[in-house]
Amino acid sequence: MRSRLLSHLIAPVALFAFAFSPFAQAVVQNRIASAANDGVRTPVSGTVVSRAQRATDLGTAPADKKLESMSLRFSMTPAQQADLTLLLANQLNPSSASYHQWLTPEQFGARFGLSSADVAKVSAWLTSQGFTITRTARSSTFISFSGTVAQAQQAFGTSIHNLSLNGEAHFSNVADPVLPSAIAGVVTSIVGLNDFKAKPHSLARNVPSIDPSQPHYTQTVSGVTSHYISPADFYTIYDENPLLTASTPINGTGVTIAVMGNTDINSGNVLPDANVAQFRTAAGLPAINLKLQSAIPAGGSDAGVSASDVDEAHLDVEWSSAAAPGATILYVYSSNNIFADSLTYAIDNKVAPIITISYGLCESGWGTAMLASYNSLLAQANAQGQTVVSSSGDAGATDCDVTGLATEGLNVDFPSSSPYVTSAGGTMFSGDVNDSAQYWNSNNASDGGSAISYIPEQPWNETSGSGGLTAGGAGGGGVSAFFSKPGWQTGLGVPNDSSRDLPDISLNAAALHDGYLVCSSGDGQGETPCVNGFLSSNGQPNVFGGTSFVAPSFAGILALVEQQLGSAATGGLGNIGPTLYGFLNGPTYSTVFHDTIAGSNTVTCTQGTPDCPNGGAIGYFATTGYDLAMGLGSFDVNKLVTGWSGVKPVGTGAGSGIGTSISTTALTTSASLCAVSAGTLALSVAVTGTASGPTPTGSVQFFVDNAAVAGDTVTLSGGTASYSLVTSSLSSGGHNISAVYSGDSNYAGSKGTLLGPNNNANFYPNGPIASVDIVSSTSSGKPDFSFAPATCGASTSVQPGATAAGVTFTITPVNGFTGSVSLTASNNDGMVATPSFSVSPVSITTSAGVTTSFVVVASAPTTTAKSIRPGLRPSGRGPAGRMPWYAAGSGATLAGLCLLMLPRRRRWGALLAAVITISALTAVGCGSNTSTTGGGSGTTPPAGTTNASQGIYTFTVTAISGTLVHSAQISYVVP
């Protein structure tokens, strides 16, 4: 209450001071000219999230259900967007008068927010609809409010339904909302119409019990030695000790780090927190200066301790403070939505110069409206001098996948992919037990440390060829599909892909080799807080991994940088990208950063799925300089901190800025994507921006399999362009075609994958078919075959329990091909189904084509049925003594992994990888997540049988003969 009252008292004073400051610009103009209730409505597009599209619909949500965290997020005018882009570049340019001249939230609002008159009009309209205003942004960029489902449906002309996804209950709007046109013109998104949350990027590891009286973190059990990382180990490995032990310690004193949370830190939020206190004592550190700040909207309810979030809260607080033992840690928490509440509060109130957030979701899971809103929020943070550090994800280069073999293609995590965020990726130590003595002492010091020196690293990757993500995690990294490359992201190894690449830096994130110690046993739900140092009450260490550790640890290191710089860092560092890549382009990179050229963040994928036409693994490899597996690499903390002031920032001159508004690039063709044998493929590109903004300008670069096609750049005219892609030189099989928009002063760049005429998002909720299947041309003379259904991208309906009409595939020989063709299929969305082929394998002995029919029965034996769909981030929860989702080593078989899965307080899904070989589908997975809920008027399943649930499902059907591979996708709609 006090903080809200103070903010209201301070705001008028700050605004008065701003009017006479050098930041003053022309007062923003009113934009809402007509009456708010003029009867004309305009949709706010991009607000139905993909997880809602994939979920099972359970009908309309209760009318009286309260929605506490709704908000209208306001857009900027083109002039404001251009002004902000220029300001952000100048604030990072040492030659500019605006260098490090950070804004207050009120100054930001007076320049880039909505006018006070317009804010009043929007507020009045919301009140007229029965909503209660809970917060008006200091920056005039949003209004938060609460109300019921009935009020939201009436006001926004949408329908809010109860849903089920992966066994979890949710609610969401199932259609884009509408607003009075006068208001819609100033709104980017409506937040809070669903309860799908981003998930923490942390992973628990099971470890054996040891004697509580002798806590060993270099530990040998049954002849096997394991190592767990304590703060003292971190200081040794990354050379932080010279700073901490200096005559005037550089330990973060005087700097505040804001940690974003989505739960109370303990029951009642009592300080000091017992777990944090035990962690500090075990690590030999003084008591922490920990403060709490609620971001729950006025009148909102505090849900207390969230079992799926409290481990994340403890590890973020403990390890941000471990990296900066003298810093103040401000834990900003909420209950409903860490982005809508915690992150928004931290930025709009400028609570600290450094913000760390270990939550995220793959870019495509957000929806363009949410991406646009939160990206603008992050730009505001930078303009205010706030540095935001975010974890890059734990699913390697396939961030939309959860477990098993990758099926969703190459994807990256947001907010880590925002150009206004420093992306924190993962490494793992490359030494093994044979060289343990070289890097580890056999005994532990009183502070739990046993590391001897820096240990060589490679990209974190504990996945396996057979189990994929079921076996382990990997450091997130790759190419953004929405954001163009900022001017500062340049240097040795940085791809020429016109896109924001991530991560930026990396530190150890492995759980197995080697995990971090955390104290998080007590969650307010009957468990005893951490005791005996790092041990839980049963004598087991709490050991975790994941890029969740990298973000808070790097945030702590930035606190050391700020303390070291002193007055030069007054108010914060803002976006540190120019300095980080200044190291890469300067003479000290090789002495500060640990450049690694071995390892990858690749994940084994299902053949025929996006980016995986021929099977194998997809991802990126470590190379000299920057790479998409671990960014610039890990670093020597002492040399990074002491060398920071001597680095020349890069990419801060004129023309280096990027637009702040989201654009969308659509790449289409009127031609079939199946069995393409023509020499060219006609493509059409359309780039769109916000409804109230100008038409995007600039150019579009074309890519084949993520490699730029030399010289294939076209200039937009009216936001569109046409292009003829030469395909005669492409090899036989599947290829991914994409177009990358460069961006302009108003819009950030964006990427679109090829979407054929029969392939639309209604039939393919997991994304468009991004693969064009090339057949060797007649002129090449190479034997090949075409493989296609009668209609490329065919779709059909099937009732639960019924048999769908067979889809006929024809295999036609080309250039004298003969031989046997085997058939497989991937059940991309985990449909409960029993599929088969009428003929498999198919034998080609003449020049005539041969057909086979693919048949799907929308039911399966209950013992094997899985109604599972990919896309939900693992919760990251699990205590010592419970097996996490990848506790076995990479060499373990999938069957062994299934037997070892014993997670606590986790909800597991998406463990199914279904593959049809010869004439049957083999389901690969473990655990149980069976659904017996059918849809439509399907048959009642016989005993021991489960029917398919309502939804839209895709299958990738693949034909293989030797090295020749051709695929096509079909979909089934279960009503």
Notes on the protein architecture:
- By secondary structure, the chain is α+β, with helices and mostly antiparallel strands.
- It is globular.
- The longest helix has 18 residues, at 2-19.
- 18% of the residues lie in helices and 28% in strands.
- Strands 14, 15, 16, 17, 19, 21, 22 and 25 form an eight-stranded mixed β-sheet that branches.
- A hairpin with an 8-residue loop joins strand 37 and strand 38.
- The protein has four domains: 2-199, no CATH class; 201-646, Rossmann fold, CATH 3.40.50; 663-781, Immunoglobulin-like, CATH 2.60.40; 783-872 and 909-975, Immunoglobulin-like (Sandwich).
- The protein is built from 19 helices and 52 strands.
- The two termini are 50 Å apart.
- The chain crosses the membrane at residues 883-902, 909-931, 951-974.
- One of its GO terms (molecular function) is tripeptidyl-peptidase activity.
- It comes from Tunturiibacter empetritectus.
What's the arrangement of secondary structure elements?
Layout: H1 2-19, E1 41-43, H2 50-54, E2 56-60, E3 66-74, H3 78-91, H4 105-112, H5 116-128, E4 132-136, E5 142-148, H6 149-156, E6 160-165, E7 168-173, E8 178-180, H7 181-184, E9 187-191, E10 199-200, E11 203-205, E12 218-221, E13 224-227, H8 231-237, H9 241-244, E14 256-261, H10 274-282, E15 289-294, H11 310-323, E16 328-333, H12 338-348, E17 354-357, E18 359-362, H13 368-383, E19 387-391, E20 413-414, E21 422-429, H14 436-439, E22 457-459, E23 478-484, E24 499-502, E25 505-508, E26 516-518, E27 542-545, H15 550-565, H16 577-585, H17 589-592, E28 593-594, E29 603-604, E30 617-618, E31 634-635, H18 637-643, E32 664-668, E33 680-688, E34 699-704, E35 707-715, E36 720-726, E37 733-741, E38 750-755, E39 771-774, E40 784-789, E41 795-797, E42 807-814, E43 819-827, E44 834-837, E45 842-844, E46 850-857, E47 859-861, H19 894-900, E48 913-917, E49 920-924, E50 945-947, E51 951-961, E52 964-974
Parallel strand pairs: 14-16, 14-17, 15-16, 17-19, 19-21, 21-25, 32-38, 41-52
Antiparallel strand pairs: 1-8, 2-6, 3-5, 3-9, 4-5, 6-7, 10-18, 11-27, 12-13, 18-20, 21-22, 23-24, 26-27, 28-31, 29-30, 32-33, 33-36, 34-35, 34-37, 37-38, 37-39, 40-42, 42-46, 43-45, 43-48, 43-51, 44-46, 47-50, 48-49, 51-52
Helix pairs in contact: 10-11, 11-15, 12-13, 15-18
